Fold this sequence. Notes:
CATH architecture of the largest domain in chain B: 3-Layer(bba) Sandwich
Number of domains of chain B: 2
Order of helices and strands of chain A: EHEHEHEEH
Number of helices of chain A: 4
CATH architecture of chain A: 3-Layer(aba) Sandwich
Largest interface: A-B, 26 and 27 residues
Largest sheet of chain A: 5 strands, mixed
Helix content of chain A: 25-40%
Structural class of chain B: alpha/beta
Shape of chain B: globular
CATH superfamily of chain A: Glutaredoxin
Domain Thioredoxin (chain A): 1-107
CATH topology of chain A: Glutaredoxin
Family (chain A): Belongs to the thioredoxin family.
Number of domains of chain A: 1
Number of strands of chain B: 17
Strand order of the largest sheet of chain A: 1-3-2-4-5
Largest sheet of chain B: 7 strands, mixed
CATH topology of the largest domain in chain B: FAD/NAD(P)-binding domain
Keywords (chain A): Disulfide bond, Electron transport, Redox-active center, Transport
Pfam families (chain A): Thioredoxin
Protein name (chain A): Thioredoxin
Order of helices and strands of chain B: EHEHEEEEEHEHEEEEEEHEEEH
CATH class of the largest domain in chain B: Alpha Beta
Oligomer: heterodimer
Helix content of chain B: 10-25%
Radius of gyration of chain A: 12 Å
CATH superfamily of the largest domain in chain B: FAD/NAD(P)-binding domain
Amino acid sequence: MNILYPKNTKEFDDIIKKDKLVLVDFWATWCSPCRMLAPVIEKIAEQYEGKITVLKVDVDDQQELAIRYGIQSIPTVTLFKDGNVAAKEIGVKPLNSFTSMIEANIA
Amino acid sequence: MSDIIDVAIIGAGPAGLSAAVNTLARGKTLRLFSSSENYLAKAERIDNHLGFYNISGKELMNRFVEHVNTMNVHIENEKVVNILPFYDHFMVNINGEIVEAKKVILAMGMSKVKEIPGESKLLGNGVSYCATCDGMLYRNKTAVVWDQSKDATREANFLNEIGVKVIFVSKNEQPKELNPNIEFISGTIDEVNGNTKVESVIIGDKIIKTDAVFMLREIVAPTALIDGLELDGGFIAVNSSMETNIEGVYAAGDCTGKPLQISKAVSEGLIAAQDAAKKIDKIKLK
């Protein structure tokens, strides 16, 4: 399983520019719904290994990114395609809502 | 996370308590959660529940609770925030604690949740049902807390502690326990405004600018609790085994529709519990 934790905005930007499809889980340690979603995100990373890149961004550590993408509620899971936001799911959602979001954007 | 339990029961009225008794009777483990007062306890006199002629709602409710307590089941007074299906089981968020359960029985009674204009459009974009979940995102910002449950004061104080500028809106008197740093407005919220995120709320003839609105009702609407739950005429849709459109999630009692009666709730709780237990046994045999 391969989940990346970009340490700063630059690292984040480099990844979303370089990789075609990037799924980003905006979360925080204190957020219980985020903890609930964690195994779902891990499953996605496993299922789509080599096809998409999965990132986790702690909104407390990386407020710049949270502000840039207008994160008002967490968990928010955003799919980036070619560096742009292609789809977004706010809140605790089942696995299939993320797989359908990915399937709709995977070429 | 603790060990996985067999059945999580949400609601401790006649349906939830009956589900608890029957889950236990089938040798299954359970936890029982309730966050609101039961309507039954407010009924003056009940004549149509077999075996109990001329009994007050309060007394009958006490007997029900005593019954489950005798069986060593205790009601946990916590609010369920959300439920997430994950493969063959569920993760249930009980006010921050994640409980894993094989089956879920919803028995939270009739949901009197009336959404206000702007609420569902801005849910997740400033509208929140859970202060401990989203509060930290509004540090150094303004948040309106709408008092609609007994926990609202506690949650408003929590937001104030973590550095949110809190405005407390209530139709009741200002609670004594409310932190004095919190601004109090008497009234109810009529509307939430904002384009892509919350910008203001309307309270009577006042417009209050805010970044967030915490709607702290006693119960979360079933459809906000679990994604994709089907309703039928405002009530949770179920089949003859009391199972909803989501496999493994059952509903029983007033939340499934009329008649809103004790005997119906008790029997639905039994049907749901027995079916849940039966299906858990089938999985074990595989």
